[in-house]
Every structure is written in C-alpha cells, then in structure tokens.
Amino acid sequence: MLLSDITEIINGKKLWDFENKDCTICGATDMVSELLSVGKDGMVLVTGLATLQMLKAADIVGVDGIIIVRGKEIMPEFINAAKSYRIPLISTKFVMFTTCGLLFCAGLKDINGNDVEVYKWT
Q: pTM (2 decimals)?
C-alpha cells in the first residue's frame, strides 16, 4: 500500500515531502527494543514515540515509514533527522489502536504477514 493511500486512510498529514513508498506490513510499538526485534523492511511503523532513538532503530531495521499517533507535536529536529535518514513521517490524530485497525482492514498485513482473512471466525 502506498504511503499516499495510508495517509488518506488515517486522515494523516505528511511531515515532509517524501518519496511515495509501497509498504506491505504494519507494526506498532512505543518501545525501541521491540522495534529492533520485530521490525522489517517494507514496514510502516505506528508509534507515539517521536525520539531520535526510535528513528535510529527504524533506520536499522529498514522501516519504510513512520506514523506518529495521537496528534503529538513533532519537534523540527525529529523531522530533520527523518529527512536525513530518508524515512517518511506521517502524523495522525487517531490513537494507535484506531490507526492500526484502519490500516489492517484496508489491506495491510501484520508483521507476521497475516491479513484480516486469517483472523475471521469460521
């Protein structure tokens, strides 16, 4: 799913003019250690943690985009660092749960590669 589509689905705002990457999975965490253990290429990260440590971890694991939830004010230093790492940043006023739910129902897979069909009751 293209970042432009993701931005629209979550009623988000691009925080800098980034390349429209294609993300295939979605993961959410506010813990740097968890991102380092489960993060993957092609992932869009949903987080409320807008720190340089989270940004460095996202770069290490190959995250293709970061969504900052809860309408947090993002410091210019964080945006500039994301630009230098070439990691797209999107902001949304939705909470983490809602953001993930919207993206999952729209077709993004979880970090294990599962889509919404796997979790439907039979």
A: 0.94
